[in-house]
Amino acid sequence: MAAVRWMLRWVAAAAAAVAAALALDNGLARTPPMGWLHWERFLCATDCAADPRRCISEQLFVEMADRMAADGWRDAGYEFVCIDDCWMAPTRDEQGRLRADPKRFPSGIRGLADYVHSKGLKLGIYSDVGKKTCAGFPGSYNHYDLDAQTFASWGVDLLKFDGCNSDSLELLAEGYRLMSLALNRTGRSIVYSCEWPFYLRPLQQPNYTEIKQYCNHWRNFYDVYDSWSSIKSILDWTALHQDTIVKIAGPGGWNDPDMLVIGNFGLSWEQSVTQMAMWAIMAAPLFMSNDLRRISPEAKCLLQNREVIAINQDPLGKQGYQLFKDRNFQLWERPLSERAYAVAVLNQQEIGGPQNFTFSLTLLGNGLACNPACSIRQVLPASRDWGVYGWISSLSVEVNPTGTVLLKVLPV
Ligand code: GLA
User: Residue limits of the Alpha galactosidase A C-terminal domain (predicted)?
Assistant: First the structure.
């Protein structure tokens, strides 16, 4: 028996070593990256005369960097300030290099990167594998090396590489590979964020083993919107495809369910709690897209919640999965380091009040999470100790409509 157990452990360790060896070997994103990204909240406003506070400009990123450093975001772990689409001038320069719109980014990206670095933060930028970005600015097609070198020379720390306007699936895949290699050749540490599987999926089943060799995280599904229906659709898609996508995630490579929209207009408090809890269960990169100059104390407190962030950033780096679905309830778990588990109970019913969900603790961790006993701590919606439970106990959890209760289960 002991020999069998030893063999099993050996096989598991060998499999983990192979998986680790196959992740993009740039040493980055050992836990899901965290930061701020402009797209969902600020889209593509380029008329700074009409809308100086919201247009995509140097000023916007300087102000976000200031807030991130001054208001506790950086200290909570949010380190990347990321530019999305629409930062560029409409054409490349005489040497064929990309350039920022000179009116909106008077210091250039180099100047902005210096500023962001002076605040102890990192700068992310955006480009596209095809001939044009999704919003119609110059894309990187045929310029992968030059663009990677340009970004590195500016001091960029992350590249979000979109997949619009590629002429074929072959060119799309080749472009994602070439840009990864080009970034590596610059010698600068640049996190590589891809949308490769999302653009492939309608026509071809993505090869995640390959994608993980080239990307630090990758989008699988549609853009997040500031709405509960959007959050729900992302969770439903993830649960439906968990057999293919969960096992591939780990240190160096993550599934990216898109930005956190907490602090905007579309989510209620309960729904915000659900997004935060479930993004932690999914080991998702945490990029907020909101206005840090105007954010409610509640949203800020939720986004900076140290216990949830610790679950998201757990060093074991295993993505969670849905265990069970019963009427309107969903039970999710995520294995954590030191034999702990994060457990989420989500109530999808949108009529009536709080509902109770009762489940057996033997469901958790393949029966091992509470064997022989465990201590349970509620992390969200508020932190609270629930005490010690035996293996065959049941747990009854009250969850508000569209809300989630997030628990941490520790071995005793
Ligand atoms: C695509 C991406 C979004 C955003 C926009 C920019 O839709 O999925 O995240 O980058 O392009 O145009």
Answer: 317-403
Residue 281 is predicted with a pLDDT of 99
Query: Pick from 228, 251, 261: which is nearest to 319 by CA?
Result: 251
Distance CA 188, CA 217 (A): 18
Q: Answer for the pair 381, 405: CB distance below 8 angstroms, yes or no.
A: yes
Q: How many CA atoms lie within 13 A of 326 on its CB side?
A: 10
What's the confidence (pLDDT) of residue 22?
66
The whole-model pTM stands at: 0.94
Is the preceding peptide bond at 381 cis, omega within 30 degrees of 0? yes
Half-sphere exposure of 320 (CA within 13 A, CB side): 35
Q: Which residues of the chain have pLDDT under 50?
A: 1-21
Q: Is the CB of 286 under 6 A from ligand 1?
A: no
Across the strands, what pairs with 40? none
| Beta strands at 341-347 and 404-411: parallel, antiparallel or unpaired | antiparallel
Q: Which of 83, 47, 93 is CA-nearest to residue 62? A: 83
CB 376 within 8 A of CB 411: no
Q: Check pocket membership of 370 for ligand 1, CB cut-off 6 A.
A: no
Largest pairwise CA distance in the chain? 74
Please write the tens of the pLDDT for every residue from 235-287.
999 999 999 999 999 999 999 999 999 999 999 999 999 999 999 999 999 99
CB 285 within 8 Å of CB 294: no
| Angle CA 359–365–366, to nearest 5 | 90
